[in-house]
Target: Phosphoserine aminotransferase
Amino acid sequence: MTIYNFSAGPAVLPKPVLETAQSEMLDYKGSGMSVMELSHRSSWFQAIIDDAENLLRDLMKIPENYQVLFLQGGASLQFTKIPLNFAQNKKALYVNTGSWSKKAIQAAEALDNVTVEVIASSEDQNFTYIPEIPANVDQDAAYVHITTNNTIEGTAYQSIPNFGKVPVVADMSSNILANDYNVEDFGVIYAGAQKNIGPAGLTVVIIRDDLLGESDISAPMLDYTLLAKNDSLYNTPPTYAIYVAKLVFEWLQEQGGVAGITAQDQAKSKLLYDAIEASELFKSPVRADSRSLTNIPFVTGNDELDKKFNQEALAYGFENLKGHRSVGGMRASLYNAFPVEGVNELVTFMEKFEAENGGK
Ligand SMILES: *Cc1c(COP(=O)(O)O)cnc(C)c1O
Model:
């Protein structure tokens, strides 16, 4: 039985990447050691982290005046670090588009000396769309925080709104490297690696230089300036996760870079969205103009049928297709490494299920 992993994260990795990791597992390039055993201060590891950074800069066309950091703590720790580093005694703007945005807002609100203003929200309709951004946002705000892709709800910005001169801070955890974004549209980009980059444990943070102030955060590990000054090696970074990320970046280059993989992602998601549109049984809970390329929820509208579908899907070899508990139904996460064959099989499976369960 072929297993297809539809997980929202940790998610499927490219098979050639896993094969390379396997072949290099016991002896990394003649070092006689596994990557896991290399000192993070060794020239072996320095070459790995340098390659990872250069590959990511190349893939995303990251300009020289941005720092690329390989950190830990997940996207969730950045929820606190971002207001701590950029908005003390200032106002920070947030757009509330889902569960992860909400957590980012709550983390900022928990800091005494940060003023949080939510400038737009789609909570009124269970986060099933991307809200309009008001025309005149406060131009003195430290930043405006957006979640480019809402992993749980399956919505995504189709373009980055214009916020004037306010730096845009983007949680890109679930669609980094799946969209041809212009890095210069952002002040900060951050992403937990376990969706579209590599294994869990690594968090990529990209920061425009002028946003990094003096080191004046009392907790060193929360201070982006200090972490940047030490080139992500203030403490032991997640070395093996950085190595696998490097292999993923190499694989992405072979796919034609971000433009190449985005074209593949568009083709994959179209297969599934077209099948949902054509179906009388399955529906997308997301407004048509707000749909995500990478996380695609769908429902029958009947909890019992959803449950039956999920049971049969699991038996067929579709792992982690069950929707998030806050949305229900099903959710297919079609990240970069998810193979198109799996989408074709899912569509065939859905048609068969519909025919057997009173649909057309
Ligand atoms: C998964 C996810 C998070 C949480 O990431 P952690 O690395 O587990 O902290 C935050 N934001 C978005 C958009 C996500 O998809």
